[in-house]
Design goal:
Strand order of the largest sheet of chain A: 1-2
Radius of gyration of chain A: 20 Å
Shape of chain B: globular
Largest sheet of chain A: 2 strands, antiparallel
Strand order of the largest sheet of chain B: 1-2
Order of helices and strands of chain B: HHHHEEHHHHHHH
Distance between the termini of chain B: 27 Å
Oligomer: heterodimer
Shape of chain A: globular
Number of strands of chain A: 2
Helix content of chain B: over 70%
Number of strands of chain B: 2
Distance between the termini of chain A: 15 Å
Strand content of chain B: under 5%
Chain lengths: ~325, ~280
């Protein structure tokens, strides 16, 4: 029996939940958390860029809004980051709609560049906005270990399970949407917007919905990130590099696929962290070279990403296995 | 500054107009040219201006090589060529930046002594630094050369024809692959010239390209992808808008003016001021 869909998801989740039990080293735990974080972020990007075909290179804006919303609410008004996270996501979704409204009139490269431009504007505004900490950023004070404050000191595990929950919810959402009417409309918009529109798909509305969903989840991840590292500034959450980093796991794993973001993140994040740690001072830039080379290799050799490669292997493997099975029967 | 933007944008525009590809590694091409200038300057102790043809030639080669090795393959992608090309050039950009960091370290560098530095001229009561003025002059010349090349030579006509109809040119005996490769080469050489001139008065660091690349994209979009005259005018507008915004609000916010202009133009006229497409 082929493992697919929900059973595969459940199996992977069980594995993911069990992994940290065998790992107590904080360095490796950090890698696990980052991997889960980028899986979730890239899955959110995939909603808009993969299924709906609207390549956004401005996701850092939503990430930053999520991070800033929960952080400002928490440090200034003592609002629990769990609530802040939801509000951050909602605010990011609202901004996503506000940005999408003009940007979705644009097509192709003009759209991509518009997303970069809007995100860069956000970066510059936050950099000069004194109330939000400007360039110095905001330090989140430690108020004692608690779930309500989403702060933990003795162990990183609660963070891990927190982000895995977010990633799992997002995976389920993607799973559900890809099979729903909406998923088909999104893919129609990606495949041929003119044909979709002539068949009565109101593409603008569907693009807006994709943007809102993508921004919402990206904002939530932003809040999580802020609580995890306890310090945010425009350079860590709002830069163009962040936007690129969010899109890369999906590009590597397979654009518009359910497992692409996870596969890509599992390959990319541990690798770049390990390279950075072991080559450290002498190898500055090496992680970037490997990153770039991987992306170039995937884009030239297998634009469907690693998931496409796995699917190919399965197909040829299945073909080889079938005659054997017939003999057995 | 506007003229440098224009020349950087011209290289980008050329490649886009020719084959519908936006080179997201364009800024890194610029960065490479600046480091080439820097390295050769240290090695040969020649003035950056004397290095101009050398760097331009090397950048031409780089453009051709990158087209032959990577871009051509990405264009053969079965599905979503559009996305494959965006990310292949992105991957290139990241790789080139990593290489620069590895070889030159992330430190800021500059070429301190050259024939032009620390001189300024008084033009109608306004003091202009000579390196910037020379950069503007060279960029204008470069632009003129590019224009003549495209408008007045057989090669230019072949280029123009290839843009019009990629399939039909094969019938009249134009080697499309060669034209594409040359297009990338010229795009590289053009940004190489801009890089040399920029290196005479600007800091050189691995991330330098990113700042200019975004401005170049905006310039190109403003003028209309594929239009050279548009790139020139777009560059000048951007330079002016940037200067005016810097006067009106804090200098650190000066780019916002450019971004606003971009959004305004693409929304009102989604194909840019002079776009064909």
């Amino acid at each position: 029996m082929k493992l697919q869909g929900l059973p595969l998801g459940a199996a992977v989740l069980a594995l993911v939940l069990a992994v940290p039990l065998g790992i107590s080293d904080p360095f490796f735990q950090n890698i696990l958390i980052l991997t889960a974080l980028y899986t979730a972020l890239s899955q959110a990007w995939n909603l808009l860029g993969g299924y709906c075909g609207q390549v956004s290179l401005g996701q850092a804006l939503f990430f930053g809004i999520g991070a800033y919303t929960s952080t400002i609410l928490f440090t200034r008004y003592g609002v629990s980051p769990l609530i802040g996270m939801m509000l951050g996501g909602l605010l990011a979704a609202l901004v996503g709609l506000a940005v999408g409204w003009p940007c979705f009139r644009l097509r192709g490269h003009y759209f991509v560049i518009a997303t970069i431009v809007v995100a860069e504007t956000g970066y510059l505004l936050f950099l000069n906005w004194d109330w939000a900490g400007a360039a110095t950023g905001i330090l989140i004070p430690f108020k004692g270990e608690s779930i309500v404050d989403f702060q933990f000191q003795t162990s990183k595990l609660p963070y891990y399970y927190g982000i895995v929950t977010i990633a799992a919810v997002l995976w389920l959402f993607s799973y559900w949407i890809a099979r729903s009417k909406w998923g088909f409309y999104w893919r129609a918009v990606r495949g041929n917007p003119d044909a979709a529109e002539s068949l009565g798909v109101r593409i603008f509305r569907y693009k807006m919905a994709a943007a809102a969903a993508s921004a919402f989840f990206t904002g939530i991840c932003g809040s999580f990130y802020a609580q995890y590292v306890s310090y945010i500034d425009p350079d860590s959450v709002l830069t163009f590099n962040q936007s690129v980093l969010i899109s890369l796991p999906t590009v590597l794993g397979g654009i518009g696929t359910l497992w692409g973001p996870a596969v890509g993140a599992v390959v990319l994040i541990p690798m770049s962290e390990l390279v950075r740690a072991y080559l450290g001072g002498t190898g500055q830039g090496t992680d970037l070279i490997i990153y770039g080379a991987l992306i170039v290799a995937v884009a030239t050799l297998k634009p469907e990403g690693l998931c496409g490669l796995i699917a190919d292997l399965r197909k040829s493997g299945g073909r080889a296995a079938r005659p054997a099975a017939d003999e057995g029967a | 500054m506007g003229l440098i933007y224009a020349l950087i944008a011209a290289g980008l525009s050329l490649i886009f107009g020719l084959m519908d590809i936006v080179n997201f590694a364009h800024g890194e091409f610029l960065m490479t040219a600046m480091y080439l200038t820097f390295g050769l300057h240290l090695l040969l102790t020649l003035d950056p201006l004397a290095l101009l043809p050398v760097v331009a030639a090397l950048m031409f080669l780089l453009g051709v090589v990158i087209y032959r090795t990577v871009i051509r393959r990405a264009m053969q992608a079965k599905t979503s060529v559009w996305m494959a090309q965006i990310f292949v050039t992105f991957g290139l950009a990241i790789m080139m930046r990593g290489l620069a960091q590895l070889i030159f370290t992330p430190e800021y560098r500059s070429i301190r002594h050259n024939w032009l530095s620390d001189r300024s001229v008084n033009l109608l009561g306004v003091y202009l630094s000579l390196p910037q003025l020379a950069a503007a002059g060279v960029c204008l010349l470069g632009f003129l050369g590019l224009y003549l090349l495209i408008a007045r030579t057989d090669f230019g006509r072949a280029l123009e024809a290839t843009r019009e109809d990629k399939e039909a040119v094969a019938l009249v005996g134009i080697n499309r692959d060669l034209i594409f490769a040359l297009g990338w080469g010229i795009g590289g050489a053009v940004v190489g010239i801009a890089g040399v001139m920029l290196a005479t008065f600007y800091y050189i660091y691995p991330g330098v390209g990113a700042n200019f690349a975004l401005v170049a994209f905006i310039t190109v979009a403003l003028g209309g992808f594929g239009s050279l005259g548009g790139a020139l005018l777009g560059g000048i507008i951007i330079g002016l808008v940037e200067a005016v915004t810097a006067m009106l609000v804090e200098p650190s916010l000066k780019s916002i003016g450019i971004y606003a202009v971009y959004m305004l133009v693409v929304l009102l006229r989604p194909r840019g001021l002079f776009g064909y497409l």
